[in-house]
Write a structure and sequence with these properties.
Radius of gyration of chain B: 13 Å
Structural class of chain B: mainly beta
Largest sheet of chain B: 7 strands, mixed
Largest sheet of chain A: 6 strands, mixed
Low-confidence stretches of chain B: none
Number of strands of chain A: 11
Radius of gyration of chain A: 13 Å
Strand content of chain A: over 45%
Mean pLDDT of chain B: 95
Number of strands of chain B: 11
Number of helices of chain A: 0
Low-confidence stretches of chain A: none
Distance between the termini of chain A: 38 Å
Oligomer: heterodimer
Shape of chain B: globular
Order of helices and strands of chain B: EEEEEEEEEEE
Mean pLDDT of chain A: 96
Helix content of chain A: under 10%
Distance between the termini of chain B: 32 Å
Structural class of chain A: mainly beta
Number of helices of chain B: 0
């Protein structure tokens, strides 16, 4: 049973638009929810993370929204840029359990 | 130099062969992990180690074994490789003592079993 479900699988956004990726988890014991960004040929790298005691965390153009009662969290990328084109993974817990990934393409 | 180094970066091997993938880190982290990445499946945990004397199975440990030779070294072995073990393998580290749960990944090893 997949512990972290991520959608959509792929996303195409216009430059300057908002990219939104969603994740849902099953285990209420999870207490750490990061998003990782992966460029082709590279390992994933931490983008932003949140703990369940807050509902939102913002770092620059990247925001995590967290809904504990719904067991859902999402990544919002404001003013999306071509350089944001990558694969994004939501994850939970330690050791990390990953979603299946979203391939984001930002087109000019 | 990379903080988390995986060797080799690419490997082609034959079915039934034994193969070892190596990971070394200079970050001084106590925790190390092996993940496998397949298209459309994300990253799945194979094994993890929270210190030198600790080894734990992950989600997909069948067909794999690991060795934590030192705090800085964590190797993954395929005792008898099969084609469905063709994948991209990542080693990662994290530090339980810093209060920061961030995992740092290596560049990956692309393994092809023919």
């Amino acid at each position: 049973q997949q512990q972290v479900k991520q959608s959509p699988q792929s996303l195409i956004v216009q430059k300057g638009g908002i990219s939104i990726i969603n994740c849902a988890y099953e285990n209420t014991a999870f207490d750490y929810f990061p998003w990782y960004q992966q460029f082709p040929g590279k390992g994933p790298a931490l983008l932003i993370a949140i703990r369940p005691d807050v509902s939102e965390k913002k770092e620059g153009r990247f925001t995590i929204s967290f809904n504990k009662s719904a067991k859902q969290f999402s990544l919002h990328i404001m003013d999306s840029q071509p350089g944001d084109s990558a694969t994004y993974f939501c994850a939970a817990n330690t050791p990390l359990v990953f979603g299946k990934g979203t391939r984001l393409s930002v087109i000019a | 130099d990379a903080d988390v180094t995986q060797t080799p970066r690419n490997r082609i091997t034959k079915t039934g062969k034994r193969i070892m993938l190596e990971c070394s880190q200079t970050k001084g982290h106590d925790r190390m992990y092996w993940y496998r990445q397949d298209p459309g499946l994300g990253l799945r945990l194979i094994y993890y180690s929270f210190d030198v004397k600790d080894i734990n199975k992950g989600e997909i440990s069948d067909g794999y074994s690991v060795s934590r030779q030192a705090q800085a070294k964590f190797s993954l072995s395929l005792e008898s490789a099969i084609p469905n073990q063709t994948a991209l393998y990542f080693c990662a580290t994290s530090d339980s003592r810093s209060g920061n749960t961030e995992a740092f990944f290596g560049q990956g090893t692309r393994l092809t079993v023919v």
